[in-house]
Amino acid sequence: MAVIGLTGGIGSGKSTVARLFGELGVHWVDADDVAREVVEPGTTALAEIAEHFGEDILTSEGSLDRAQLRGIVFEKPEERAWLEALLHPIIREELIRQLSPENYQLPYVLLVSPLLLETDQHELVDRIIVIDVPKDVQLERTMARDTNSRAQVERIIAAQMSREDRLARADEVIDNDRPLEDVTRQVRELHERLLVDFG
User: Fold this and answer.
1) Whole-angstrom Cα distance, residue 157 to residue 137?
2) Dihedral, CA atoms, 38, 171, 166, 87, nearest 10 degrees?
3) Residue 119: its pLDDT value, please?
């Protein structure tokens, strides 16, 4: 079965596009969801994070304070490197497990990941779809969705692969700076091509 990578910068609309594929019956795994699952209370990874950063990195309920952790790792590259070295192999293993659905009829599944091209996750995929929007759209959408300042969103965008480099690595591009019905059409047409290519 083919694994198709779906990526884009923060605020590009990965979840929206993934849901559109899902409506066509496509199984998809979101690397962000997996990244949350591997640090849930009781996991080894969360215990190691708390030991490294201190118990203050946990909420009163014992969950990871993701906003506080994000603030630390985007200010201190060496802490980000430590965290990635811990989590990326664990996330990769879980992605591989979830990308193998049983009794699945379609010839491909989707791996949705913001860091598909920045990590070794791209080695798991047979084709790369990039969801593309201009930087100002990324900023607007992310600030509206999250309680992040403009400066923090700009730091996140700067830490990700540039729009130009991402597009250069794309096998397919979905323009998500369009009305929803147009994006839906793009997804449907791409789905039909993938069924032919991998069927």
Assistant:
1) 12
2) 10
3) 87
58 and 4 co-located in one domain: no
Domain boundary among 100, 125, 154: 100
Does residue 30 contact residue 38 with C-beta atoms inside 8 Å? no
Residues 6+ apart with CB under 8 A from 188: 24
CB 22 within 8 A of CB 128: no
Tally of domains in the chain: 2
Q: Measured between alpha carbons, how far is 48 from 175 in angstroms, rounded to an integer?
A: 40
Domain membership of residue 60 as a residue range? 33-100
- Strand-strand pairing, 172-175 and 127-132: parallel
Q: How confident is the model at residue 156 (pLDDT cuts 50, 70, 90)?
A: confident
Average pLDDT, integer, range 127-136: 96
